[in-house]
Amino acid sequence: MNKGVISGAPIRVDLSEGDSQFINEQGYSRWLKNTLDMRMQKKEIRCLIKYENVAQGIYNYKVFLPLKSGWNNNSLVTCTNCGELFVIDSENPETENLSVKQIADSTLCPTCNVVLSMYLAHYPATIRISENQFGSFNDKAVFNQEEESEIVEFYELRPSQKSLN
Ligand SMILES: [Zn+2]
Predict the structure, then answer these.
(1) Distance from the alpha carbon of residue 3 to the mean position of ligand 1, in angstroms
(2) How far apart are CA 127 and CA 84, in angstroms?
């Protein structure tokens, strides 16, 4: 082994109770990514799909509108850095009385890795079209029409469960 190629000190990682090991930085980022992937679950929700004019010169842009029915009260938020969409279940007792930023807390965007609480906006009031262009759509005027709806999968944003460590 050539000691000259070792970069940075090994990082200690607690894999589970009483079990830890030293891994290098590359292994650490892989471990961190796996951990984040496990934390951010996807959730399927029924959405109305509309093709709308969401900005000047942008027509037929696909807009997802979660159907509100029964106990479901799903709302969408977007990462303004990359456009990833997240579903928040407002009927979940975990999210009660919390703002979107509080729910996101220190969660990293699974797509672009920014701290989500700094880059969240309500969707479709804010739609990230590209790096320099944002659009907007007013969903208040749209009525629920089951027949045009589809099941779509989004990351579910929920408060981090600190007690589980
Ligand atoms: Zn992002």
Answers:
(1) 38
(2) 10
- Taking the centre of ligand 1 as the mean of its atom positions, its distance from the CA of residue 115, in whole angstroms, is 8
User: Nearest to residue 43, comparing CAs of 153, 165, 121?
Assistant: 153
Q: How far is the CA of 114 from the centre of ligand 1 (A)?
A: 6
Cβ pair 127, 61 in contact under 8 A: yes
Q: How far is the CA of 107 from the centre of ligand 1 (A)?
A: 11
The SS3 call for residue 118 is helix
CB 109 within 8 A of CB 121: no
Query: What gap in Å lies between CA 42 and CA 139, rounded to an integer?
Result: 23
pTM of the model: 0.73
Q: How many CA atoms lie within 13 A of 89 on its CB side?
A: 19
The Å distance, Cα 64 to ligand 1 centre, comes to 17
* Residue-by-residue pLDDT tens, the chain, 165 positions: 444 445 556 666 555 555 556 667 777 777 776 665 556 899 999 999 999 999 999 999 999 999 876 667 899 999 999 999 999 987 888 888 889 999 998 899 999 999 999 999 999 999 999 999 999 999 887 766 666 789 999 999 988 755 443
**DSSP summary character for residue 68:** P
